[in-house]
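Hi again,

Forgot to attach this to my earlier email, sorry! This is the prediction with adenosine-5'-triphosphate bound. I've pasted everything inline since the attachment limit keeps bouncing my files.
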Amino acid sequence: MRNPGERATDVTVDRIIELRDVNKWFGDFHVLRDVNLAVARGEKVVVCGPSGSGKSTMIRCINRLEEHQEGTIIVDGTELTDDLRDIEKIRSNVGIVFQNFSLFPHLTAIENLTLGPVMVRREAEHEAEARAMALLERVRIPEQAQKYPGQLSGGQQQRVAIARALMMNPKVMLFDEPTSALDPEMINEVLDVMVELANEGMTMIVITHEMGFARQVADLMVFMDEGEIVEQAPPQEFFANPRSARTKLFLSQILTH
Amino acid sequence: MTSVGTIPAHGRALRRPPPKRESGPIAWLRANLFGGVHEAVLTVLVAWALFLIVTALYEWAVRDAVWFTTDSLVCRRAAGACWAVIVEKHRVMLFGTFPYEEHWRGVVVIVTIVGMAVASGFRRLWSYRLFVAWVVALGVVLVLQLGGVFGLAPVDTNQWGGLPLTLILFVGTVVGGLPAAVFLALGRRSNLPVIKAACVAVIETVRGVPLLTVLFMASLMFPLFVPPELTIDKLLRAQIAMIIFFAAYGAEVVRGGLQAIPRGQHEAAQAVGLTYWQTTRKVVLPQALRIVIPALMNDIIRAFKNTTFVTIIGLFDVLGATRAALEDLNWQPYALEAYVFIFALYFVFCFSMSKYSEDVERRLREGRNY
Ligand SMILES: Nc1ncnc2c1ncn2[C@@H]1O[C@H](COP(=O)(O)OP(=O)(O)OP(=O)(O)O)[C@@H](O)[C@H]1O
Ligand SMILES: [Mg+2]
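Structure tokens for the complex follow:
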């Protein structure tokens, strides 16, 4: 383990994700501005920032749910281009969990998990089911396997969604505000699963305003505002002495309630 | 805590049963039929009129009716309905110009199609096997109708008629039209401009003209443009026209369902690596079609009624065959009775479909399928 405050930024470190001068526009609206971010294998990055600052857009570019117009995105050695094979490869390495779960409502929990591997990887159904059950146990809801998403609580749905992403054995997991659609009493059951995942060494980029989680898990804090990465620093430094005024203002706003 | 307004002391608001509502037949009568003097008078008048109509109907349809006779003169002497016309002419009405000795084949066709349709109404039976059963059933239907194999006498499609023809056109329209509707709807949402434009053109053109003109084009104009040795069978042309017509309307219904699927569903499917077609087949369509089943049932019922239009291009569906049967001058005066029978036939088919769709809709509302 690294010393607190020290970060693996030197070039010899194995970078699994790299964004270099990434720019994106929605029409005339410049939503990502010269975004630079490097994530080492096993690193946990927590992204925060005001609403509309481009956090979701940034991580959605990493698995091509959005397309960037300028700059370079490299995931596990593969550059993201218009080549469908590259996109396919990157998507199979990157799992994503959405704010509103986005489970398939017409499929049971376990079917939600097995659909991808069976369709995409041609995995045998019984093998996929065995792995799915193991993952559902890991997120602590094996007894809900046969239920439909509509019959599950928000926290349970989000845990199914995490398990669904893990089914593809991703090397990186992206989380877009995974707990912000949840009732307060369910937030922890989801965060616990994420902490476990972090402890197992998964590379993670997490957009969240759960600062307790961030302090506990993050190797790197990223603050975004108006499409820019304004500040990135290890959590101790980030919380103790934020350099930019915008970060200070933002932190004072979210830490006071 | 500071209080806002006055809070009643604990226990002051007594728990009590809801206010009484009068119920029972007397209360219902009072509420609905005899609420006041005007209403009472109106109720009595309407009841009297109803009574007159029902007795007159009873006398005509039952008391004075002739049920069985081969002699139309018996009917002429009777004051009531002549149901005998149906008994006498049912073979022509039900099977049209199909060769008389081969009518048993038509019976098997009717039983097969109706049986399969009823079976398809049960969700429990929805599986791959039902699909296979349909394929087999349609094969059997075609063999029976066409003949020429297994020692069955060949029958030209021009001779097909009556209820089997109606049912075949109906099933053919739905079986061919539903997938076509889905593809048109998907095409209309496609990112590829050419495909999108083609689908929009088909949908909007077909929706802009009446079915009659489409059928006329298929039967009269089509041969003008195609060399005679290529001429496709008239029935097949009519069938294709009906399929396209059904598909164009169905496509708009399906599109509504597709639009109701949130973007997140597409993204979640993409994120686990599903391709466009995998996403469509496994994620989008199962949800979209479920939403639009009631609306599609509407189109399906209309397709059943639209089969009557083939009369105008010289095919004898059950309605056309009935009209042909009534060419017989002896029985012509009893057309009304014959049409009442046809009316009842259509009603049974359409009403059961409509009931079924209501049932599906209710189940969807209760969310029992998820
Ligand atoms: N598909 C789109 N088309 C046009 N504008 C968009 C689109 N998606 C996002 N935007 C805009 O881009 C900006 C950044 O959006 P984004 O969702 O990345 O913000 P965010 O930081 O995730 O905010 P939040 O905390 O509210 O989720 C917003 O102003 C948003 O309105
Ligand atoms: Mg967001």
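Confidence is low (pLDDT under 50) at residues 1-5 of chain A. Residues 204 and 229 of chain A are 18 Å apart (CA to CA).

That should be everything now.

G.
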